[in-house]
Amino acid sequence: MSTNDTRMNKEDEQSDLPKLSNPALRALAGAGYHRLEQLSKTTEKEIMKLHGMGPKSLDPLRRALAEKGLTFADES
Question: Whole-model pTM?
Answer without folding.
Answer: 0.79
